[in-house]
Design goal:
TIM Barrel, binds L-Erythrulose, 8 strands, alpha/beta, binds manganese (II) ion, 10 helices
């Protein structure tokens, strides 16, 4: 398991669950200071992940790029893969495709979270699930062609009616025969939706491609009431070697949330 920490570059998400908000250079410097070897970046679009900009910052601080978020497509541009408007669905795919391409230059997978559709839909859920499956198949093939993979992230009921559990994501993947796609296990969402976090990780072990390492209250792991040991044991038992990335609120501040994340992974 490799620790990673989130860096948010999107001003509209300044109050979101990300550890560092002060720009790429500052985020990388603070990640390094807290002992991380990787950052996960929430970028406003593909251009912010451009190599000439990202690579020097990562190299200066000895960091890998763990993953890249696509949620700015929704937060900033109001794009969705399941909009009733075909033009918006098309622009949503292009936005995500651009982030996949940019992330792949660093070996980093792109994450599909809020772009899957929110807590209310403009069309019937069945129709939305068909569109989502088609889009995920196409975007996963694109990721695979670039030597990486795509990440599907189930979200809790207050954020989506689409994929809420790891089983929902696994069903979509198998129904559409998708390859090149793994599941992101966000422990904050799982705390709300799954009957058992460690049980679910064990059940879907081979599909887990990334973990958002967050406690029950979306603070750094250890600052809430999620039992850490059974989850760490489950990740070890399934042979998980991916990132555990802190997507949490910067409480009491970003540096302390970052240090607590490192400590919690050493348990
Ligand atoms: C994104 O990783 C996530 O977990 C969502 O809750 C953001 O809206
Ligand atoms: Mn998440």
């Amino acid at each position: 398991m490799r620790p990673a920490v989130t860096v948010c570059l999107v001003p509209q998400a300044a109050r979101g669950p990300f550890v560092f908000h002060g720009g790429l250079e500052e985020g990388c410097a603070r990640a390094q200071a807290a002992g991380f070897g990787a950052v996960e970046v929430f970028a406003p679009g593909p251009e912010a992940l451009e190599e000439g900009h990202m690579r020097p910052a990562l190299e200066r601080h000895g960091l890998q790029l763990a993953a890249v978020g696509t949620g700015a497509g929704w937060v900033v541009h109001k794009l969705s893969l399941v909009s009733a408007d075909a033009a918006i669905r098309g622009r949503a795919r292009e936005f995500i495709r651009g982030i996949i391409t940019a992330g792949a230059k660093f070996g980093a997978p792109a994450i599909l979270g809020s772009m899957q559709g929110g807590a209310t839909l403009e069309v019937e859920r069945e129709q939305a699930m068909d569109w989502l499956g088609e889009a995920v198949a196409e975007l996963s093939a694109h990721a695979r062609s670039l030597g990486t993979f795509f990440l599907l992230e189930p979200l809790n009921r207050y954020e989506t009616v689409m994929l809420r559990t790891v089983s929902d994501a696994a069903d979509l993947i198998s129904r559409h025969g998708i390859t090149g796609c793994k599941v992101l296990a966000d422990l904050f969402h799982m705390n709300i939706e799954e009957a058992s976090i460690d049980g679910t990780l064990r059940q879907h072990g081979s599909l887990i491609g990334h973990v958002h390492w967050a406690d029950s209250n979306r603070r750094a792991m250890g600052f809430g009431h999620t039992p850490i040991r059974p989850i760490l044991q489950a990740l070890k038992d399934i042979g998980y070697t991916g990132y555990c990335s802190a997507e949490v609120f910067p409480l009491p501040d970003g540096d302390e949330a970052a240090r607590q994340t490192v400590r919690s992974l050493e348990w």
